[in-house]
Amino acid sequence: MRGLKVAGLAVLTILALVLLALWTVLGTQAGSHWALGRVPGLTIENFQGHLGGQWSADHLLWQQDGSRVELTTPTFDWSPACLLRMTLCINQLDVEQVSLQFPPSTEESSGPIQLPELKLPVAIQLGDVRVGSLLYNGSEELKGLQLAAHWTSAGMQIDSVHLQRDGLVLDLAGLLQPVGDWPLIATGNLSLPYAPDGAPWKVALKVDGDLLKTLKLDADSSGYLPAKLTGELQPLVQNLPAQVHITADGFKPSADLPDTLQLNQLDLTAKGDLSRGYQLLGKAVLPAQKGPVDLLLQGKVDAKGAQIAGLDLTAGEKQSLKLTAQLDWQQGFSADAKIDWLDFPWHRLYPLIDEPQVALRTFNGEISYKDGNYLGNLKADLDGPAGKFNVVTPFSGDLKQIFLPELKLTAGQGKAEGHLNVQFADGIAWDTALDLSALNPAYWVAELPGTLAGPLRSKGEFKSEQLKLNADLDLKGRLRGQTAVLAAKAEGAGEQWTLANLDIRLGDNRINGSGSLQQRLAGQIDIKLARLAQLWPQLRGQINGRLDVAGSLKAPQGKLDLKGQQLAFADNRLQNLTLDATLDNAQRAKIDLKGSGIQSGDTQVGTLTASAQGDIKSQKVQLDLAGPLVKLALALDGNLDKGNWRGRLASGDVQAGGQDWKLQAPAKIERLADGKLTFAAHCWVSGAASLCGEDQRLMPEPKLRYHLKQFPIDSLAAFLPKDFAWQGKLNADVQLDLPASGPKGVVSVDASGGTLRVKDKDQWLDFPYDTLKLETTLNPKRIDTQLNFRGGKLGELMVQAQINPLPKNKPITGNFSLTGLDLAVARPFVPMVEKLNGKLNGNGRISGGLLAPQVNGNVNLIGGEVSGPELPISLEGLNVQALIAGESVQLNGAWRSGKAGQGSLKGQIDWGQALVVDLSLQGSQLPVTVEPYAVLEVAPDLKISMKNDKLAIAGKVQIPRGDITVRELPPSTVKVSDDTVIVGSQTEEGKPPMAMAMDIDVAVGEDQLNFSGFGLTAKVQGHVHIGDNLDTRGELWLNDGRYRAYGQKLDVRRARLLFAGPLDQPYLDIEAIRKTDDIIAGIRLSGSAEQPTTQIFSEPAMSQEQALSYLVLGRPLSSTGEDNNMLAQAALGLGLMGSAGVTSDLAKNLGIQDFELDTQGSGTSTAVVASGKITEKLSLRYGVGVFEPASTIALRYLLSKKVYLEVASGVASSLDIFYKRDF
Fold first, then answer.
1. Domain locations in the chain?
2. Could you read off the pLDDT of 838-869 as tens digits, one per residue?
């Protein structure tokens, strides 16, 4: 028993000694330091604390057999007491930097990585774990790792993981079970720093699967790239098998790119492993102008390189761009690429710049690159304004230079051959030599047709801000039909330069000169541009001048004199131009500029004078403009010091629209060397009106502050219709900041308390209103605007809208309301309307995009009236209801016309994808007036529709009664030749006319439609059908007709207009007769209305002379001369009918308008009379006797519509004043 006690005591003593030893080693700083010193290869600096709790050090290093682990400022804290509950509690693990260096492995992987099942005897609880950065073999792998987790029987629960690398930030949480296939479930967020301009880009991640087998990935990208990613990954399997699928829509790689380069319907798939490579297949659609462009990518990427089987852009069957390439990065980097361009419409994808006159039709290029050197060749076929040309050249180079040894350009019969070498390693150097032969510049610039030939040599360099150049240019030929010479020789370096034989000539225009710098400057250039029209289309006038230079490079001197006369370009004109500029030996400059007779189109601008003087330190500028619309006088002065210009707007005076604006005090202007431009507070005053600006910054990121007060609105009368006036005062405030992030500020305009005036005949009608305000608040992500009009009797209008300026379509939301808005004030803006009345009421909501807004609501017009002498119909009691739904409107309207006329219009109009119209027009007893020819009563019943750019009109039109009176043919009845071009009326080239489908039945004269004209009176009756493109079928009858000709009233026995084709080309079938006893004589018109055939006939048949005698005289032909004279007059009249076209063309060439050739008088006094207008008021008449040798000439001047003065000379002369009145 005692032995047992002794043994037990010994065991306890041993345990106590062990615990004491452990406490000595782990629980004290000295013991811990001793224990660490026993670890092979471990060194530690400034160890503090003890291993059994909390400890820290400045530096810890372990290295052995080429392996090295280094910790910077590690801190470790754990709780041994947690072991009592079978838990390892690590409260803190903090390391500023972990550096790992291991020698490369010599063992090859023989299969997938195997992970054991981990069943720990204790649980692990991690508190605050932070690793500042982790370096592996000198490369930073991650940064800012923070971890919080705990290990339980269920596995490792990751509460949070935060790590960074090169701006990439990952936050992750999940559960990892270290048993079986190591199941893993994790979710997190990834922030990517790769978007341009720092745009946000976040990815929401979800990982689910087995770490030893397959992990399924699911990610949603937002911000810079809105996309969806799904895939599978086997992270521990050899060669990393994976497959990924990415879809996106509306992705634009950079905000600076146009919307036409946005990737729509993006679909990218990658599948494979590192050994066999990952196969890539992608496609997208680019919304180019005039139709989409398809994008297709096929290729493969592996650990050795990449093969791009094809990157294809296809815009059509024969419009494509294809790139193929082979990339290798096993040892260095090498690449082989080939590009094929086939008439690809690049401008449809990048319309931000103007399309050049030269179009690239085909391009084939090949390039090989290896270790910084490249070699290739290219061939291009292009189209210029003058035709096709091509460029062929091989090229080679490296990262320091490029060399084109055999550059060949062929354009028609001309060509250019030579070489080009450019070096850009240290500064830039070049060596080029080209020989031109019969080269036509019109292949590139259409306005310069001709040929040039000769050598072009240039060699030089620009290094360390020093230029060295040797150039020789000697081109001769003809341009724009004129002799052309372009010759110059220049040579120099540093401060030694020579310019010899500068000779530029084109026709009568010359620029000649020479110069040198040999310590002193000496040179002159003579400018003699005698005929600017020879240089460029639409350019006119002449310029002469001379430039002289002298002095030294540090103190140059010069004088420039230019004088121009009758200068013009297109519709802009400058009568005289004078420019005098000098720079003296004291380095003081003086510039005087004067331009007089400035005109833009029909607007006279006036005379502009500008004078400036000063030196490098101080400057003064005076600007004056004197014209009929604006008079302007401005003066500026300032000083330049170390790149900073500080000056002021010394004075200002602007006179326009009856206002005289004067600057009240000088305003400071500063432009600093760092690019900052500021404008100090200033005020312009005109009478009671003022425009004042606060201190503001113009650059960079402008900040503008302006206030307009008491501006008289009636000063804008020149820009308003003559019969409309606006009286009142305008106040406005602008507080606007324009930073790079977007505009911010408030713009408000207030014109309340004014009066709108409309002139009705000779009286002015006043329409006072109470409120007219517009206020806009701008923010980078939102623009709010509100328009408020309260006009008393004029009604009310209110519009509120909010716009988001960031998205492409600029979404807009808002609402509007109309209450009793009077249309009468809009009458002056509709010139054809003499009377306009009506009230508008309605309200609705605004949505959609700024460029394609959608409106939902209703607008009603009540009590409308529209009339005017130029309108064919007047509308009274017009009531219209418009129901607007998005991109369509439902119309329902009705009106009265005349005493009993009624009309209605119903239907719908859509304008979403394309304009679609479906309307129904009905009416009865509608009075229609076509001044001065017809007054009709019309009853339409038509269906009007439009779809796919095709207009369709179907239904019936009845014209039962009315009167048509034609005193003279209107100008529209004169047919214009097919090859005539009416200036200003040309249609767009290549744009086909709108197709029209018509199905209209027209019934005429069911009651009584009277016609009177050209001596004919009749009643019109008939039916026609108008088909597609005005193809007309049917006939019109002229009943109860009487025709007055040759002093006789003839009965119209038959008169028909037959339609069997175009509406304006009917066939005539007309007979007018005179019955004398049992004999009928008449005239028959038949054939096309454009070229009718005239025939005299009789019943019974007789000779043409006898038939004409019965027609004119009512009896047979006698032997007296009087009968012959009368018949000759009739025959002459018939003959002149066929010569009208020839004589009219001849008269028009002589400047005579409305030319007519006719007969006058009877019997022996029969004469041929020619008449026409020289001007609108002056007309000429000349008559020649047929049977008597007498002629008469008369001039008639129209004093008014009813009074004219006539001077006649013939057998007798006369001066008469006539008064004309119609009864």
1. 521-615, 618-698, 701-863, 872-967+995-1013, 1014-1117
2. 888 989 898 888 777 888 889 898 888 888 87
